[in-house]
Amino acid sequence: MRRAATMVLLALATAFGTACKSEPGEAGASCKAKDDCVAGLNCLDGKCTKLEDEAAPEPTGYCATLAALAGSWTFDTTVIGAEDLAPRGINGHFQMTVTVDNCEGKIALTKSGYDDVVFSNKKIQQSDAALSESQLIPHAAEATVSLKGKPTHTMTFVVRDGQLFGYYHYAASEWTRAGMWGHLRGVAAGQDLAEVEDFSAQPCEVRCLTQCDATRRGADATLDEPALAACMTACGGDEPIVGCGPGEPLPDELVVAVNGPVKSLDELCGETTAKLLAANGLEGAGIGRCDRKPKIKDKPTLRKLGKGRLDGSFSTAQLVEVGYFDVGYTGHLILALETEAGWFWTAPLADLSMAGVGGVSVTTQSLTLRPKDLLSAVGREVVAEISVETTDSDLGVNEVSIDDTKRAIVCSAGSPPVCMRVTTDWSSQRTLIDPDVDNDPNKHPDLGGERGEVYIAFLPGDLVSISTPAEARAEDRELAGIYAWPE
Q1: At 478, is the secondary structure helix, strand, or coil?
Q2: CB–CB of 409/335 below 8 Å?
C-alpha cells in the first residue's frame, strides 16, 4: 500500500514538472543552457544572445576575379592581328555589366562602335553570356559572346588595381573570316578610359599572349608553346620574360632593297627607267616609261599618300610603274618614298611583264596604299598591298593557267627607309580553255589548282610574326617565325 502511494506521488511530480517547464526564451531572457533559448540564439553569460556570424572567408582565385568584376565597365578592344594589316590598331568600344552569385558570373555586353564610328540604335550589338574560368590566364574570367546572332568573340578578363585588362580573339566562323585578335582595357562605368594603345599597362600574362601571337600561331601549329609557358610562369616571379623571345633576324627573302636618295620624283623616274633598260641591254634606247598612275584593271589610278596622312614619318609615298614596250612589255611596280633626305625607292615589288606573243598577260587587280602605326618609332609606316593576276594560255594543248598573287609591303621611316615584303595570299589554277574541244583527262594530267596564305602581324616591341596554316607549302612554312624589325 505504501509502495503504491509513492508511485502515484512520483507520477504527479513528473507531470507537474513537465507542465511547468518554461518556453524557450527570446533575446535577453535568462537561461542556463542553449536549449533555454529560441533557435538562432545561444546562452551566453546567463542571457539568450544572438552571436555575430563568423566572417565569410575572402574569395580566392577565380572567385576573387568574379568578385572584382561585379559591376559595370566601359572598355576598348585593340586589334593586333588579323587576316591582313588593314584593321591593325582599330579600337572597338564596349559596355559590360557583370552579375555574380556564389562564384557564378554572367555578363551583358554591348558594342557601341569603333574608333570614331558610333553605331546607330539599329546597329548596336548586344549579347548575354556566362563567365567561366579562363583556359589562357590562370584565375581569369572568360566568356564567348554572340554579337551577330552567332559566336563572335572570346574575351578573357583580368582586374588589376580597379582597372579592367584582358585578351580577346574572334570565335568560330568570325575567326575563319577575319582572324582578328588583340588586347582590351577598361575602367568602371563613369570613369574616363585612358589611352588603350598603352600596351605596357597590360598585365604580364596578357603581354605574353600578345607578344607570342598565341591565338594565330596556336591555330596554325606554329606557336612556340614552351616559350609561352615559360613566359606565363615567369609572370609570378621577379624577372618576367618578354613574350617568346626578342625575335630572330628578318629572313633575307622578306627584306626589300631600297635605293636613293635623289632630289626629285622626276630624277627618280629617270634613274629607274635607265637602270631597267640597261639591265635588258637597251641602254640609251629612250623607250622607258615611268607611270605615276599605275593601271588597275587597265584603268590608270593614282595611289599616293600626302604629308597630312603620314604624321611626320614621310613627306610623300607613291606607287609607280616603271617599264618599256619592245616585242612585249617589261615592267614592274616600285614604291617611291619622299623623306627629308630626298626620294628613295624600293626594288621591284611585282613583275608586270607580258609577252608580245604566246598568250601571257598580267593584270593588276588591286593596289592599296595606307599609313599605319605598326612600330613603336615616332611616325607612321607606309603599307602597300598589291594583287596581280597572270594568265598564261597554252593554245596548243587547250590549257590555261591563272596565277593570283597578293603581297603586303611595309616601309618604316629612316634614311634610307627599311622595307619588307611578304606574299600573303596566292593561288594557281590550270584549266581547259574549251572543254568541248578536248577534255580527255589522260591528255591533261596537270589540271587542277592550289592556294595558300601567310599571316603577318606586327606585335608590340617591334616584332613581326609570320605564321602559316599547317597545310601550307614548304617554302611558306619555312618562313614561320617571330622576327625583330631590322634597324
Answers
A1: coil
A2: yes
Give the span between the Cα atoms of 78 and 199, in whole angstroms: 10
Residue 282 has which C-alpha cell? 637597251
Longest alpha-carbon distance in the chain: 153
Residue 323, number of CB atoms within 10 A of its CB = 24
Beta bridge partners of 361: 391
Length of the chain: 487
What's the pTM value of the predicted model, to 2 decimals?
0.84
Counting Cα atoms < 13 Å in the Cβ hemisphere of 445 gives 1
The sign one gets for the Cα dihedral 291, 297, 302, 308 is negative
Partners of residue 388 on adjacent β-strands: 364, 405
- Please report, for residues 71, 73, 281, 376, the alpha-carbon distance to residue 99 in angstroms, rounded to integers and kept in the order given: 7, 12, 75, 38
Q: Which residues contact 442 (CB under 8 A, 6 or more apart)?
A: none
Strands 455-459 and 163-170: unpaired
How many Å apart are CA 137 and CA 349, to the nearest integer?
Answer: 41
Q: Are residues 93 and 79 in contact, defined by beta-carbon separation less than 8 angstroms? A: no
Nearest to 414 by CA among 473, 315, 339: 339
The three three-digit cell numbers of residue 153, written as one number:
568573340
Q: Which residue has the cell 559572346?
A: 145
Q: How many Å is the Cα radius of gyration of the chain?
A: 36
At 89, phi and psi to the nearest 5? 90, -5
Locate cell 587576316: which residue?
83
CA-CA distance, 348 to 257, in Å (whole number)? 9
The residues facing 288 across adjacent strands are 324
In sequence order, what DSSP letters do the residues of 74-93 get, joined into one string? EEEEEEEE-SSSTTTT-EEE
Q: Closest Cα to residue 191, out of 97, 110, 74, 94?
A: 74
Average pLDDT along the chain, 487 residues, taken 10 residues at a time: 42 43 82 85 85 65 96 97 95 97 97 95 95 96 96 97 96 96 96 83 96 97 97 90 93 96 97 96 91 95 91 92 93 96 97 82 96 89 97 86 97 93 96 83 86 96 96 95 94
Per-residue pLDDT of 216-270, as tens digits, reads 999 999 999 999 999 999 998 888 888 999 999 999 999 999 999 999 999 999 9
Q: What angle do CA 42, 44, 47 make, to 5 degrees?
A: 90
Q: What are phi and psi of 104, to 5 degrees?
A: -130, 130
CA-nearest of 373, 369, 393, 395 to 383 is: 369
Q: Which residues of 422-455 are buried (b: 16+ CB within 10 A; e: fewer)?
A: bbbbbeeebeeeeeeeeeeeeebeeeeeeebbbb
Q: CA-to-CA distance for 386 and 405, rounded, in angstroms?
A: 8
**C-alpha cell of residue 385:** 598591298
